[in-house]
Structures are given as C-alpha cells and as structure tokens.
Amino acid sequence: MVAPAPEAQSDPGQQHSQRLLGTLLGDYWFWRPEHLPSAALVELLGEFGLAEPAARAAIRRAATRGLVVASRAGRTTAYGVPERTHELVIAHVTRLMRFGAGDRTWDGRWTFALFSVPEEQREVRRTLRTRLRWLGWAPVYDGVWVTPWDGGDQALDVLAELGVDTATVARADLADRLPARGHPLRAWDLDALRARYDDFLDRYRGLAERVRTGAVGPAEALTSRTRLMTHWREFPDLDPELPAEVLPADWPRSAARECFVAIYDGLGPPAERRFAQLLARHAPDLAPLAAHRTSEDVRRGEPAEPAPSPGAGGRAGWAGPLGRR
C-alpha cells in the first residue's frame, strides 16, 4: 500500500477511503509503472460501499497529498504510484509484513530521547510527538520518550529536522533499578493494547477458518483482504514490537499475526482475480498484469518483477510517466 504521511488527517472518513485506495494499489499494482484509469479505481472503491462522488473525491485528495500521481490520455485521467515514494512504500510494506514475526533480538536496553520545546513552538512539539510515535516511541513523561530498540539515529534525525537542539538521546541497560511507576514499559497502555489484539482475533478468527476451507469467493476475498490490511496496519503504530521478555507469557500478538498471515496469504489468489475482473471492464490490456504477493515474499524482500507491458514498445495504453524500474 501507499505509505501514509506520519501526520494524521482531520477527517477519519477521508483517511479511511484513501487508505483503501492505497492498500488496493499496494497489494495488486504497486510494482507496476502503468497508471490505472480513474473509472477503474472508482469501481474498485465501490466494492467497499463508496458511492462514485465519494470515490472520486478520495482519489483527488490522494493525488493532492502526493499519494498517487495523475496522467491523462485524451479525455481520460489515470493514476499511479509516484516514483518518489517507491523506497518509502517498500519500507512501509516490509515493516507491516515483518511486524510480530518474532525475529527481532532484544539486547535488554532502552533508548531514551529527552527534549525541551518552548511553549510557543506548539506546532513543532505536536509534529515531533507524531513523528516519534510513528517511529515506535512513546512518552514515559512529557519530554521523556522511550523505545526498546536502538532508534537513536532516527530520533536525532527528526530532532535535527525540526530544529530541536535542546535534546539528549541515550541508550541504557536499566536492569531492575527502577520503581514500577518509573519503568519504561509504563509508556504503553498494555491493557488497551491487549484489548486491540483480542478484538482483532475475535473479528477475524471465523474468516481465517473459512479461508482454510476455501469458502471465500473472489469478491469477498478482495474486500476482506483489504479491510484486514487496513486493520493490521494500525498495530505497528501502537506497538513497537515490545520485547517478549517484558510482556506477559500469554501476550496475543503472535496469535494475531498468525491469523493475519493465514488470511492475507490465503485470500491473495481470489482477491487478485476480482481486482483483475474489475480492471478489465475499463482497461482489458492491463488486467492480466494485476498480481498479489504473499507476506513471505515481502519479508524476504523479493517482490515480483513487473512483467512486460502490453502494447507497442512494451508500454501500455494507460502507462503514465513513472517509467521502468
């Protein structure tokens, strides 16, 4: 999917519709340089209950934010993923697919960022907090943020970018020398986080069983797989993969990931068929190029290379300005 900007949007409805669009492009079209006709994107969003005016508005807003880029062929407008976001999208998708895999080794240390931002620089303070949260940090106190991972360089980059020079970043092994109320783990609301994982499992366990038995058709596969991804993408922003060493033994993150992977990978082929069916109504030459990928494809960093484009010179009729990668 197309990676979101760290700053949240003010309208949750707009944010949701743009996430749907980004997820659809990322899951079935991101590796393609060709642009898709707007009518096809409108129909794809219609699968999720968006009326045509709302779908077109979502596409325009995504273009305004730079999440997609527009091109024209005669009177027809088409959209694709801008090349400048290529590496960002790869990093974002890889982060989602690796999240919860349990393959990170914790060295027992915590990284702290201590900073002071003047009261009159409220926008800087807000942006700094938003960016740190997106990177997996959380506040122990107002001006003391923490992560269990070695994220010091990233934090220093953000602080420098925002001009915050009254700051200190350090990594420390705390062992058991802190009172319970001062432990870094208090920066996260574990009860609320557990509830989110439990809600995810309650919502999707039944679907996972239906996927296992092959009971999900193409149309449902497309909508369910996309909604699953938009739900899963929330977790890396809530949980920086807190180390198992500091969590309860029955922590539900691994179970939630197993459920996610079973559905995401299992629904890939039928969802791809539905995506291609809808695209074929507006650009039949492009429909065969739609492709899904599995969680393991992304984790290994081995996305499929784009197949040759149809048409003269290997370029499709709807091809936009991205060019070959």
Automatic annotation (TrEMBL):
InterPro entries: PaaX-like_central, PaaX-like_N, PaaX_C, PaaX_trns_reg, WH-like_DNA-bd_sf. GO terms for biological process: DNA-templated transcription. This is PaaX family transcriptional regulator. It comes from the Bacteria. Residues 287-325 are annotated as: Disordered. It comes from Pseudonocardia cypriaca. Residues 293-303 have a biased composition (Basic and acidic residues). Gene3D superfamilies: 1.20.58.1460, 3.30.70.2650, Winged helix-like DNA-binding domain superfamily/Winged helix DNA-binding domain. Residues 104-173 form the Transcriptional repressor PaaX-like central Cas2-like domain. Residues 188-275 form the Transcriptional repressor PaaX-like C-terminal domain.
